[in-house]
Amino acid sequence: MIIFKEITPLKEAILQFKSNGESIGFVPTMGALHSGHISLIKESLKNDNITLASIFVNPAQFNDQKDFEKYPVAIENDIFLLEQAKTDMLFLPSVNEIYPEGLSSPVKYGLGYLETILEGFYRPGHFQGVCRVVHRLLDIIKPDDLFLGQKDYQQCMVIRKLLTDFSIPTQLYIVPTERETSGLAMSSRNLRLSVEAKQKASVIYDALNFIKKHSADTPFTVLKGHALSMITDAGFEKIDYIEICDATTLMPFEDYNKNNKTIALAAAFIEGVRLIDNLLIN
Q1: Burial of 158 (0-12, 13-18, 19+ CB in 10 A)
Q2: Which domains does the chain have, with CATH numbers?
Q3: Which residues belong to the active site?
Q4: Is the alpha carbon torsion for 165, 115, 135, 188 positive or negative?
Q5: pTM of the model
Q6: Three-state DSSP class for 108?
Q7: How confident is the model at residue 190 (pLDDT cuts 50, 70, 90)?
Q8: Which helix (H) or strand (E) element contains residue 12?
Q9: What is the average pLDDT across 116-133?
Q10: What's the whole-number average pLDDT of the chain?
Q11: Looking at residue 104, what is its pLDDT?
């Protein structure tokens, strides 16, 4: 695996590969890698000639400075995992390399209601920062394919809108969530949890499965109330949301309709760590 820390030599290598007719698959990450990230690498390896991963903890997308400071860093292990997975290239830039003109930006991405609901509501400015770094990385790399995980479902929708709005000729692939044996969605933030909290945290998946199992015969308000009780009783300190939405638009649903593609989503805190998850209902 070739590691690049600067943009210019990375662009030269990509240009060489593309001149040989080879396609580029791109997996952007913030490091602290786990099996979920590696599943994205595997999808890229299946679809593209060259697989490029990036590791960059993007300060522009953290609306909470303390969350940014606590974000886990495990670069040596990350490199080991990427090499084991047969990743071809790794882009490992500094903040100055990505944002040479500083973190402030005059660009405002038109995300509409996606920026006002669920993650957008509880993490103001987050998706602006996500769009900024992904747009920058796509402009540098110009990949044929982009691989993201379903766990960050709303973020996937935001990136799809970014690709459309800016006519970026990159194909987006959304890869199913990888889970631990307990059902807990794999996340870099899980590294900050105690063993006990990780066991308790699997209740989010249980609650989403409860919604899925009973969605056709129980009012959504009742389902959300029961899921909230499940998560609260397990020891979570705070729940930002439990919602049942249109899987295409993320607008909330009030009743079940077998013809509507539906998704249940949740975000909650345990041991001060914010976890998110989602489950497609039909």
Answers
A1: buried
A2: 2-175 (3.40.50.620), 188-277 (3.30.1300.10)
A3: 37
A4: negative
A5: 0.95
A6: coil
A7: very high
A8: helix 7-19
A9: 96
A10: 96
A11: 82
